[in-house]
């Protein structure tokens, strides 16, 4: 009697642990995949690439690199875009704002204003690495001698 009770408790505990582990990870990946599908459906020319370590790589003719980061330790979502020129074109700024508006569910006009502000601050006075906050989002713009990039993220505490 004791042997059967101990066995059934152990099996129930094992089943509970397996159920908890199997149910936790797909929910995060599905939400991120849904965001990538929304981006693909709403932005012309965008294609979804491979997924690796909670990052979905995207591609578009206006950018050199584009990726969507999903729920990490320090951020809930992250959008990264890199332009192939030191001074990004208006099409790049528009694409970054459109993507951020979809990912963070904010109006595109507001995102366009925030992205433009971050990109234009890079220069002689503020330097080549600018970090700003706009609409509870962290924006970081960096430029090198040949390219510029923007990272837009929302921290987990907001």
Would you mind describing this structure in some detail?
The chain has helices at residues 2-42, 90-104, 108-121; strands spanning 47-52, 55-59, 65-70, 75-83, 129-134, 137-143, 148-155. It is an alpha+beta fold and 158 residues long. A hairpin with a 2-residue loop joins β1 and β2 (55-59). The longest helix is centred in the first third of the chain and has 41 residues, at 2-42.
What is the compact description of this entry?
The protein has 158 residues and is α+β, with helices and mostly antiparallel strands. 44% of the residues lie in helices and 30% in strands. A hairpin with a 2-residue loop joins strand 5 and strand 6 (137-143).
Question: What is the element layout, followed by pairings?
Answer:
Layout lengths: L1 H41 L4 E6 L2 E5 L5 E6 L4 E9 L6 H15 L3 H14 L7 E6 L2 E7 L4 E8 L3
Antiparallel strand pairs: 1-2, 2-3, 3-4, 4-7, 5-6, 6-7
Helix pairs in contact: 2-3
């Amino acid at each position: 009697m004791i042997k059967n009770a101990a066995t059934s408790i152990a099996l129930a505990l094992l089943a509970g642990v397996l159920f908890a582990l199997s149910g936790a990870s797909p929910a995060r990946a599905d939400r991120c995949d849904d965001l990538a599908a929304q981006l693909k459906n709403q932005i012309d020319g965008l294609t979804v690439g491979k997924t690796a370590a909670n990052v979905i790589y995207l591609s578009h003719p206006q950018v050199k690199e584009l990726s969507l980061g999903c729920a990490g330790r320090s951020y809930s979502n992250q959008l990264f875009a890199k332009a192939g020129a030191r001074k990004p074109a208006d099409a790049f700024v528009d694409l970054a704002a459109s993507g951020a508006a979809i990912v963070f569910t904010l109006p595109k006009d507001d995102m366009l204003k925030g992205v433009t502000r971050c990109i234009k601050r890079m220069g002689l006075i503020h330097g080549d690495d600018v970090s700003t906050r706009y609409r509870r989002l962290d924006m970081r713009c960096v430029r090198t001698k040949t390219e510029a990039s923007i990272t837009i993220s929302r921290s987990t505490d907001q």
